Amino acid sequence: MLGEYPIKGRRAAEISASVEQAVAAGELEPGHLLPPMRELADRLGVNPNTVAAAYRTLRERGVIETHGRRGSRVRSKPATTGREQLRVDVPEGVRDVSDGNPDPALLPPLAPAFAEAAAHGDREPVLYGDEAVEPELARLARAGLDADGVPDGPVAVTSGALDAVERVLGAHLRAGDAVAVEDPGWGSLLDLVPALGLRTHPVGVDDEGPLPDDVAAALAAGARALIVTCRAQNPSGAAVSASRARALRAVLREHPDTLLIEDDHGHRFADLPLHPLAGTTLSWAFVRSEAKALGPDLRLAVLTGDALTLDRVRGRQRLGIGWVSRIAQRVVVRLVADGAVDSAAVAARYGRRRGALIEALAERGIAAHGASGMNVWIPVPDETGAVARLLHAGWAVAPGARFRMKSPPGIRITVSRLAEDDIGPLADAVAAALGRAPTRRYV
Description:
This protein is α/β, with parallel strands linked by helices. Helix content is 40%, strand content 14%. It is built from 15 helices and 15 strands.
């Protein structure tokens, strides 16, 4: 049951740390059944309440899950290990279409903008007590949000979208609360929620976004928050359509106390319009990251929401990091003001690559999804086998296990750096990996 790994400790903190270290090291694998609390207490010579406290800590940390009389098991995706460890090692000579990165050729040069922002900082240094948000960034962000129909609200700046989501969840929820999340969905988010001591409640996704019936069931079952990707959903490319937005708003109006978080990380590279849900519930937050369009290392996102949520987020931020570098904020302002990124052109480039791959796969009898963004999701019957066969054929794809909870197996392909000549050979390789004969030959 537990192999040769002995759980150690006399205090609850020592016992929980022993289990957590074993999970992180791979000595206790996902799904392993832990000893009943009384049995482990007898083995360690401690009070059963001590083991109960240790197990409670492990549940709150997202390491184990408890199923009543069936006992406690290491989670199938424990927060300690993280889904990033499910990456494929890419040997030399293998094309990597697994990483989810933007095309570096479509990112703007940062040096001139940083030089100008730093010079501004030399002339007018930012000091303790100054405003946390660059005024011009707030103005530009608010104008863009207004144009897209996002309700009025204060503006904050965070260190990326995941930082914003974590802060908003922390502002409203407590350990043990359930959060409705997309399945398949963003792997880092699926790790974050249990790491905060929260429970995930998966909701299905199709090309138009989260399924309204699944969302309704999750909220009726007690989920206190819902996280939605507006467009360019990772990994499926889903984008919330106008009709789906109406259906989701109707569900949310039945649950006005739900904390709604929308992630619009695709706003500068997605080729479909935004249909926001914000404002349907009393507590809401809307976040836009600049990472995929301006550069992942900028680590900057703009956050808006209802006044109470933003007040809590900014207050907690002041007690921690204080603010996100105003130099980095000025870089974003300069890049946007100078038109350094032609969003329509970038979106069109990704759209052509994504569409070409989906069409090529369809010609080979393979269904694939990718309504927007830079990823294509391909359902497969045997995920491990498909990944291995594609790696042998010279293509590294992302295993769907990084993005799934209860949804069927699949693989994710990032199209951002595919050239036109890559499409046919890649589609042939996928067809061969799934046991389909290629329809064309390429020279």
